[in-house]
TrEMBL record, chains A, B:
Amino-acid positions noted as binding substrate in the UniProt annotation, renumbered to this chain: T47, E74
GO cellular component: cytosol
Sequence ranges assigned to domain ACT in this UniProt record: 267-352
Catalytic activity: L-aspartate + ATP = 4-phospho-L-aspartate + ADP
Entry's family note: Belongs to the aspartokinase family.
Protein's name according to its UniProt entry: Aspartokinase
Pathway where it operates: Amino-acid biosynthesis; L-threonine biosynthesis; L-threonine from L-aspartate: step 1/5; Amino-acid biosynthesis; L-methionine biosynthesis via de novo pathway; L-homoserine from L-aspartate: step 1/3; Amino-acid biosynthesis; L-lysine biosynthesis via DAP pathway; (S)-tetrahydrodipicolinate from L-aspartate: step 1/4
Function of the molecule: Catalyzes the phosphorylation of the beta-carboxyl group of aspartic acid with ATP to yield 4-phospho-L-aspartate, which is involved in the branched biosynthetic pathway leading to the biosynthesis of amino acids lysine, threonine, isoleucine and methionine.
GO BP, sorted A to Z: diaminopimelate biosynthetic process; homoserine biosynthetic process; lysine biosynthetic process via diaminopimelate; threonine biosynthetic process
EC number: 2.7.2.4
PROSITE patterns per record: ACT (PS51671), ASPARTOKINASE (PS00324)
First-level EC class: transferase
Length: 421, 421
């Protein structure tokens, strides 16, 4: 008998029909002899509707009250799911984040889990019931207030519960069949990945792969939780995200997958005096905005002028704010001008195997060169190579790189999921 | 400085506009120097929508999960109301029933309050904030589960908080101007009652007056809480429901008001052997269905046959169930047949003054006789006389009795409230 944590997203429980379908699946898992803990998100668009309501009564709603409001969403879906399961003859109990012991700090809207005390969840399992837990929400002991975990919070709830309960696996149900070697909408020949390390998954998620949130993967990695990303619309095996023990190596291909990201922009600080401390000064200013800086490139300074250019990428949404604060400090820093470019695309090639394989970069650059795609920035980590190209060449770039690394499959039937399957 | 508990029903907070209007009113009360605790119901039709959802996933939803589901309704309205108040520059905090210390027994769907520990509400008041409390909901200590108080639960929450906090008044906001001497839709000349005793209010509520729930009035009476029933759409004074101290007498008219009720039906058990214990046997059978029996009349038995008829009224909704169980025990009891009549109306005349005034019954019966209205059943309490008539004569009955007791006002402009005023 296994202990399985299952997480269902909002699209899986968007309406009564979805809830009944998910309930059936949970009952199957329970009847197969497993202990089952389910983490559920709010139904479909509930969260957006609640946000609209909040905006209509107050332009800048208080964080405490916004969290109180939004947590109503999972309360609805979890109670309905528990009812549906009981309707199928299996005992089920729903628990709010606070009832399930999801203790967080007090940062409303993006709280971090500080402790998990799932005593009531365990009691439910002990009497043979399925425990349904509200995703995305927690409770701060100091203030006694309800908190939310921010984007991807339900994944994090599921992983944290799986860790605290010592679950055998944490299944993340979604509307696609798993993690793919590239986005199947861009690369129809993309393959579903059967197994991937959490290290690779982290890099893919950081590089723009949407299926899993970085934070949940980090938590799983830190606590040794095995994730299974799979579709709630069929019974296919999905993608296992595993944590090889220290020293243990996994038989695996050089490249796990390719991620692309069109959500970033590039800021170039032109004409920075090439004297020590200037880069530190610039990024201290940028950091004061809490912007998420990704790639940073500094070109060689011209001996004639003694000036260098510094470029970095960041989410487009944060562009205006960072430009504004840099412009206001122009004289302190002593640069010439700022350039802003939101027509960039970022491609990341990820694979633990590249640690021990030379020539990966060369092969990547060659593939892009052969396709006539210009590389504007490059950055690398131990298991990832990222390049920036023009936005309108990014899909072609993903396809040629996918082919160059022999990731294509002939089996295009298995590709991208969707409703009704 | 006073401590005021205000309760707003679902129709007052049906949409963003309503929430903002209510927020403004609360801010006015706070800025006038009062401590304010607000109890709020779910927005408009939210509860019915959630019930529909429950029904669509499970024909017979579990009580625990239904309570979990329904309590999402107040969570939404209270958070939005707190946001709206903060948006007007006054601090506000929302609290669930459990955070506000509404401790109940474990009876899901119709829990009773067993203790009120509003420590967090007091803390909010101490820092100058308005405390917004979810109506209708509580928490059971033994099970750790969320409960709901059943119909009229938000009124009860407000009264219970007012009692526990020692509030100066508990204001019940509604869409009418207060309690009227009769339903203004039936009697256009009905007067708003300025003051009424809780004893009279209880009788009116029990007899079908819809504005206040019996349970809340009972709680207020037991704990000496003064209620002020008033409109959320204007600033008019409404109706004060007061608790005269023992021995204290209130200068008041003989008759407080008239209530009418078309929701009941009459069952007659025909041909019951007139031997001791038969009535007890019949009502033991009826009691086993948990039906709410109201008036009971036994006619004189016929000396020739030794048989009597027993009639009683009960809510139409419970008619089928009671008929069914009585029919199944026909042979045990030994009656001839059952008659069911759902075309009855009930009129109740209520007034503490009738204790010391003879002739009230006579005046009532004369007024009905003069109007050609037949009386089918009569029952009396110390401060109430109820009669049953044909359903289609009940409105006329209310009007003639209202006139006979000089309750009519000339001022018909003040009459029945509604949205938009």
């Amino acid at each position: 008998m296994s202990l399985i944590v299952q997480k269902y997203g909002g699209s899986s429980v968007a309406n009564a029909e979805g809830i009944k379908r998910v309930a059936k699946r949970i009952v199957q898992t329970r009847k197969a002899g497993n202990d089952v803990v389910v983490v559920v998100s709010a139904m479909g668009d509930t969260t957006d509707e609640l946000l609209d309501l909040a905006e209509s009564v107050s332009p800048l709603p208080a964080g405490r009250e916004l969290d109180m409001l939004l947590t109503a969403g999972e309360r609805i879906s979890m109670a309905l799911l528990a009812m549906a399961i009981k309707g199928l003859g299996v005992d089920a109990r729903s628990y709010t984040g606070s009832q399930a012991g999801m203790i967080t700090d007090a940062k409303h809207g993006s709280a971090r889990i500080v402790d998990v005390t799932p005593g009531r969840v365990r009691e439910a399992l002990d009497i043979g019931a399925v425990a349904i837990v509200a995703g995305f929400q927690g409770f701060n002991r100091g203030t006694g207030d309800i908190t939310t975990l921010g984007r991807g919070g339900s994944d994090t709830t599921a992983v944290a519960l799986a860790a605290a309960l010592g679950a055998d696996v944490c299944e993340i149900y979604t509307d696609v069949d798993g993690i793919f070697t590239a986005d199947p909408r861009v690369v129809p020949s993309a393959r579903k990945i059967d197994r991937i390390t959490s290290e690779e998954m982290l890099e893919l998620a950081a590089a723009g792969a949407k299926v899993l949130y970085i934070r949940a993967v980090e938590y799983a990695r830190r606590h040794g939780v095995t994730l299974h990303v799979r579709s709630s619309f069929n019974n296919n095996e999905g993608t296992l995200v595993i944590n090889p023990q220290d020293g243990e190596t996994m038989e695996q291909p050089i490249i796990a997958g390719i991620a692309a990201d069109l959500s970033e922009a590039k800021i170039t600080v032109v004409g920075v005096p090439d004297i020590p401390g200037k880069a530190a000064q610039i990024f201290t200013i940028v950091a004061s905005t809490d912007a998420n800086i990704d790639m940073i490139v500094q070109n060689v300074s011209s001996a004639a002028t003694g000036l260098a250019d510094i470029s970095f990428t960041l989410p487009k949404l944060e562009g205006a704010k960072v430009l504004h604060v840099l412009e206001s400090r122009k004289d302190d820093v002593g640069f010439d001008s700022l350039q802003y470019d939101d027509q960039i695309g970022k491609l990341a090639l990820v694979g633990a195997g590249m640690r021990t394989n030379a020539g990966v970069s060369a092969k990547l650059f060659t593939a892009l060169f052969d396709a006539g795609i210009n590389i504007e920035m490059i950055s690398t980590s131990e298991i990832r190579i990222s390049v920036v190209t023009r936005a309108d060449t990014i899909n072609e770039a993903v396809r040629v790189v996918h082919s160059a690394f022999d990731l294509d499959t002939e089996d295009v039937a298995l590709v991208h999921g969707g409703t009704g399957r």
